[in-house]
Each structure stands twice: as structure tokens, then as C-alpha cells.
Write a structure and sequence with these properties.
Distance between the termini: 42 Å
Number of helices: 5
Largest sheet: none
Order of helices and strands: HHHHH
């Protein structure tokens, strides 16, 4: 199991993660322009970003966060837009790879004062 990031680390990585994942998906789509556009054909209802394109982001996610993208985090059937795909993946990384911030420890005197007050 991968070590979890603390929330501050993740928030520092979030803008880089969003920019690099968006750029990678945009490049993937521009590479696909060699294939005829089938979006106007009702027989080919394809999402703007398919799940296989998102799965290809795993090495990039690992480079940035230290942990790979898990296939089960990817929405089956793809995504309506690059923004939607990147937002979902970042949310899944946050959900699965970011630990809860440690609450500040109370000093023994604070605990004793709180117990005495009740």
C-alpha cells in the first residue's frame, strides 16, 4: 500500500496535477485526430474522453504523486470532457491517497481543565 500524502502536500500538487493531466489528455485527443470524426454518427456514441485515455495517465500520476492511478477509480464509459475527467481523477486521488490532517495534540493541562469544567 502506498504511503498517504498529507493534505498540505496534496494541495501543493493539485495545480500541477490538474495542468499536467489536462495537457496529457489534450495531447491524446490531438493524436486521435488522424481517425475520422465519428461523433456526428449516431451509431458511434463515444465520450469525449474515453476510459482508456484516462488509464494511460497512470505513469504521470505516479510521477507527480508517487502513487499510480488505480483502474477502478476510472469512470466506466469515459467522461463528457477533459475537465470532468481530470476533476474526477483528482477527487479519487484525494479520496484514496491523502491522509487526514493530524489534529493538534492537547496538552495535559488543557485536558485536565476541560474535565474539571464538566
Amino acid at each position: 500500500m502506498s504511503k498517504k500524502m498529507n493534505p498540505q502536500e496534496f494541495e501543493q500538487l493539485r495545480p500541477t496535477l490538474r495542468a499536467r493531466l489536462s495537457q496529457a489528455l489534450e495531447e491524446e485527443q490531438s493524436d486521435d485526430l488522424a481517425v475520422p470524426d465519428l461523433k456526428d454518427n449516431p451509431m458511434w456514441e463515444t465520450p469525449e474522453v474515453d476510459s482508456k485515455s484516462v488509464a494511460k495517465l497512470s505513469p504521470l500520476v505516479k510521477e507527480i504523486t508517487g502513487s499510480s492511478l488505480r483502474p477502478e477509480w476510472i469512470q466506466k464509459g469515459g467522461y463528457a470532457s477533459i475537465f470532468e475527467a481530470v476533476t474526477d481523477i483528482i477527487a479519487k486521488i484525494h479520496q484514496h491517497r491523502v491522509g487526514i490532517a493530524d489534529a493538534p495534540a492537547s496538552s495535559p493541562s488543557e485536558v485536565n481543565e476541560e474535565v474539571a469544567a464538566h
